[in-house]
Amino acid sequence: VSAGNGCGHTLLTPHSGTLSSKNYPGTYPNHTMCCWRLQALPGTSLLLAFGDVDLEPSEHCAHSSLLLTDPQTGTAYGPYCRNSIPSAPLLVTNSSTVTVLFNSTSHRSGRGLLLSYATSQHPGTHYTQEHISPDPPLTMCFSVYCPAGCKDIHGDIWGNPSQGYRDTSVLCKAAVHAGVIADELGGQVTLSREKGITLYESAFANGLRSKRGSLSEKRLVFHKVYCLLSPACDDVLEVVAFNASSWWHEVDALGQHRAWVAEQAALSTTGHSWAAEPSAEAAWLELDMGTRRNVTGIITKGSSEQHNYYVTSYHVSSSRDGKNWRPYRGSSGQQDKVFEGNADSQGEVSNAFIPPIIARYIR
What we know:
Blueprint: E1 2-3, E2 7-12, E3 16-21, E4 33-39, E5 46-54, E6 65-70, E7 75-80, E8 90-92, E9 97-103, E10 112-119, E11 141-146, E12 159-160, E13 164-166, H1 171-178, E14 187-195, E15 204-205, E16 208-209, E17 218-223, E18 241-244, E19 248-251, E20 257-260, E21 285-300, E22 313-314, E23 317-319, E24 326-327, E25 339-340, E26 349-362
Parallel strand pairs: 15-26
Antiparallel strand pairs: 1-4, 2-3, 3-10, 4-9, 5-8, 5-10, 6-7, 6-9, 11-14, 12-13, 13-17, 14-17, 15-16, 18-21, 19-20, 21-26, 22-25, 23-24, 23-26
């Protein structure tokens, strides 16, 4: 729970979360406050990672401050500001409840604060590769815990899931882009640091745009833990049949006919794509994979022909029998997930299903 006019990006869950002051990493505003109440599961304790605490210095941190309190024991940590920073980057508490209070008065400088937390069930929260210690050797797998809410924190990523990421990328943000964790849940990620490559290509995936990057000495390669028992889990699944709510029967200016039928929806199809009847208000495309399969994600692309058509967002439903349909709600399970689609008709956009969908039919 958060309250106040000084709250920035905030995502809090019982397992982990991320919070920041308003405008972070820009200068935080004058005369603001924010109070976050962190609540972990009963029987666990909170671990807080100080990603950045940059509040303008003042005597006893009287002008701008960060104060943490444990209401169960009455223990206080802080106040913190630039001339009174936390003694260690990780604060281990003995409580499942912690209150985080941020205050500011008049000031001229300061990025504000960025914190993450996890529980004693998931020790070790990280923002970037630099927080990993000791430095693992090349090609050795290692594991870190990424808190929920890393998608929208400040910082860049270079690369894509297929080639890996420049080692200067924000690690947990790259993990969301790679589709190995869901941002709203966070989780343990397994990766290796391997030899760098000459050029890292940009890609849009899971609501994030990575950058095109130059040569690096090392790169980060993520491994999908739930795929370890199925080496071919990243293969493209074969679709036995396509079906659709409608299709567009186009007659162009020269009187020529073109059928934008469901079979044209396969990503590898040349020529025009599938398109619903232009007057359709609730269009859907259905994929029959012939048998139940483990579906870990989807790639979409617009029509690359003369028509600049593409889908900007969509829902996904699945069925095991083609009659009873279940909307995909992702890891949160609270509401139907809206996937961010394409912004043009040329590029491919990938979205991961976390957890995967087990079904024969996908809509």
